[in-house]
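hi! just following up on the protien thing from before. the input was this:
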Amino acid sequence: MLAIERRREILARLTNNGKVIVSELAKDFNVTEETIRRDLEKLDKEGLASKTYGGAVSKHSSAIDLPYNVRESVNIEQKQRIAETISDLIHDGDRLMLDSSSTALYVLKRLKDKKNLTIITNSVKILLELADKPDWTVLSTGGILKKGALSLTGSSAEKMINSYHVDTAICSCKGLDAELGVTDSNESDSLIKQAMFHSAERSILVVDIEKFDKKSFVKVCEFGDVDLIATNTEPSEKWISLCSDKSIELIW
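and the predicted 3d structure came back as:
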C-alpha cells in the first residue's frame, strides 16, 4: 500500500471513529509505529487530525466532507458488498436517481450490465463513468459545482430533481440514528438527497455499518421515511427490530 493510500484509510477511520491508535494502525497496515506517526504528523499539518499521545483524534468527525478521491478509495470492499446486495433490486428499463456519494458510484458500476436505464444524478464522477453507455439515458441535475466533492448542488439542481419522478432513488449519508434519523454533513447535499427521496417511488439508503448510531450536522429525513436500507454486514438486533417496527426493509 502506498503512503497516500494508507493516509486516506487512516483519515476515513478518524472520520468514522473519531480517533485512532498508533499501535493498532501499525499492526493493521504492517508498518512500523514510526511510519504511522509520520502519517499522523502529515494529517495534523494538513488540519485533518490532532495528534495525541499514542494516536490522533479527528478535528471534524462526521461533520466534514472528505475530498472525493479519499472517499472513493477507502472502505472499497464494504461499498462493493452493498452494491452487490442491491443490484438485483434494479431491473432493465428502471429510472433511477443517484446522489454524489462514493457508495452510489460503486452501486452504479455494479449496474452497468443492465439495459436501458435512465439515470439522473448530481455526481460528476457518475456522469464520467457513464460516458461509454450509449444505451442508457443520462441526465445531469446541473447546479453549482462543489469541486472537492465533485457534486452539483444548489436551487437549480433541486428544481431539476423535483421536476421528475423515478422508480428508485439511491443515496448515502454520514449518519443514521434511530431518533434523529438520516443525517449528512452539510445543507446543500442534504437538500439534494431530500429532493431525490421525494421524487422516487422507492427510496434506498446505502450505508456501511459504521454509519449506524452516528449523527452528523444536518438532518436529511426521518428514519422511517426510508423504504430500504442496504448495508455491508448484519446490523445489531436493535436495528433489525427498529426496521421491522417501521416496515423498512433491511438487507446486507
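The longest strand covers residues 200-206.
The chain is about 40% helix and 25% strand.
cheers
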